[in-house]
């Protein structure tokens, strides 16, 4: 069987990547980097498009991620460059008066994720003095990533989280008290939670993207070997062992090669449909429409209630009632799938003999819902799912925001060579990443 290594994106050897980045930093800025920080990308078992409805999400960190080498400045400026060929346009300088929600230029640029994070850390420092950013603090940064950009694996959150750790280390009392790698041990769970929340503020308030916090939580709070069961009602996390799924199986992310970054408008549109449905039902957060341990029948009850309330209406705040109903059905069924997985992985479903096929069935049902109800899938993703199932995968689904991005596949190692050959026939742009649940953001 012919199978090429070229289709795999390797996570690389962190020490090699770091030492290469540090020497490139020296060439670029003519001075030494003070340190390097890393944050991972993420894949989700379930829980798409429900973080902003307070649903449960099940992310895990990849070993692929984003590395930031940095050194401080005292003139308040940021100078930034990325080594990613698709984004690199040389060194970008951000002046202090260009940092913050009002000050950020309208035209989209990757540097806004980084300058947004510096603004958000300053804001956090107002209530937590240990995070207060020094007066006049700025930095030179060089960025490299082993994640496909726009691949639906949260390259943006990885950039935010690696950058916020760099700023924390170089520009705050917390960093002065805990130099370099000491930072990792010093960061408490609460600290990580607050830093993730600051990254969310950067993305929502500065970049203007409608993130619900799933990605930043995964990057900042993931645990090796675990899937995080993230309850978005209060952002509490329960790390769950994933070993029971992976015994005899592998999870792989198939990057379709179709980047999703141009579709922010559609993402917001889908979210707005579901929010309109929530308002009609009288809920601020859709999760509250279901009981603590929801089942399929609960979804039917809510949909009946929706139909009753919508009966006399032509539109829902100008939106199509059918479309809002489909978004509602996606959100509710996705919530039920998440709860089911949570209980399965918590060991409560003791006696489920074929756990991989149960999980696989949930993955595939999630894809159908993304395709038919959320309507965020696209041809290549549907074809990848079909192909994976035809090659014997237990399950497969589109992950992330959709309109481009990656498909998660649960499959036996023995079936992977045939799958890679079949996938190469779909598109030359397809790449595979091994999903081995890894560590959260850290100083290297
Ligand atoms: C994007 C957003 C997340 C989440 C996912 C879909 O990645 O940033 O908050 O909504 O899409 O699950």
TrEMBL record:
GO BP annotations, alphabetical order: galactose metabolic process
Which parts of the sequence belong to the Galactokinase N-terminal domain? 24-72
Q: Name one GO molecular function term.
A: galactokinase activity
Chain ranges of the GHMP kinase N-terminal domain: 113-220
Q: Which Pfam families match?
A: GalKase_gal_bdg, GHMP_kinases_N
Keyword terms of this UniProt record:
ATP-binding, Kinase, Nucleotide-binding, Transferase
Signal sequence, renumbered to the chain: none
Q: Which SUPFAM superfamilies match?
A: GHMP Kinase, C-terminal domain (SSF55060), Ribosomal protein S5 domain 2-like (SSF54211)
Q: Which GO terms describe its cellular component?
A: cytosol
Similarity comment text for this entry: Belongs to the GHMP kinase family. GalK subfamily.
Protein name in UniProt: Galactokinase
Q: Which organism is it from?
A: Nesterenkonia aurantiaca
